[in-house]
Amino acid sequence: NAGVTQTPKFQVLKTGQSMTLQCAQDMNHNSMYWYRQDPGMGLRLIYYSASEGTTDKGEVPNGYNVSRLNKREFSLRLESAAPSQTSVYFCASSTRGLAEQETQYFGPGTRLLVL
Amino acid sequence: SQQGEEDPQALSIQEGENATMNCSYKTSINNLQWYRQNSGRGLVHLILIRSNEREKHSGRLRVTLDTSKKSSSLLITASRAADTASYFCATRSGGSNYKLTFGKGTLLTVNP
């Protein structure tokens, strides 16, 4: 049982390049999330998927797209990377939805540097 | 925008002492959760307190919630060097909303 896994662990991009961050969970969770963490800012929600087949914008969605490929996998795509997207990205999943008492399980993070 | 705000931003104590961190939030909540993040790692859930609860314990952790003041506190008793980490509160509002809103965190350093 690996929990939440993320690939890659570290990536360097040049401005304008694109990339996809991968996330998978093996806990049969319905909901999945992408956050970014910047110094002094805590975690900010980029996109989330309440259940397979649905995605919604979070607090900071601009410059990102997501795909909920199946129940296990939720990917985050940067179409044209910008230096402002330099951050640590965390994927998370949660056990239940809709008025239930959820806790979130986090992956180890992807450190992204955009030059 | 941040819902929860932790206080203090940083806290340094000696091993064996108690550590208290506070969290204030702005809007009504369904529940409030505390998470720990060790340096370079993902967040780990510690404890959840529902809006109709006032206090909850889990091992050396004690959480209180005061909905009238929109605040919560996390107490870690008999701290250990291994408790060194950042601690975040996260709030979940009601409705068909799966989202948690995280504060900026308190960095706790426990000196051996």
Tell me what the structure shows:
The complex is a heterodimer of chains A (115) and B (112). Helix content of chain A is 0%, strand content 51%. By secondary structure, chain A is mainly β. In chain A, the strands form two sheets. In chain A, strands 2, 4, 5, 6, 9, 10 and 11 form a seven-stranded mixed sheet that branches. Chain A has a four-stranded antiparallel sheet with strand order 1-3-8-7, with no helix packed on it. The termini of chain A are far apart. In chain A, 37% of the residues are buried. The model of chain A has no long low-confidence stretch (mean pLDDT 92). The radius of gyration of chain B is 13 Å and the shape is globular. Chain B is 0% helix and 54% strand. Chain B is mainly β. Chain B has strands at residues 5-7, 10-14, 19-24, 31-37, 43-50, 55-58, 61-66, 71-76, 85-92, 101-102, 106-111. The model of chain B has no long low-confidence stretch (mean pLDDT 91). Classes of the chains: A mainly beta (115), B mainly beta (112). The interface between A and B is medium-sized, with 29 and 28 residues.
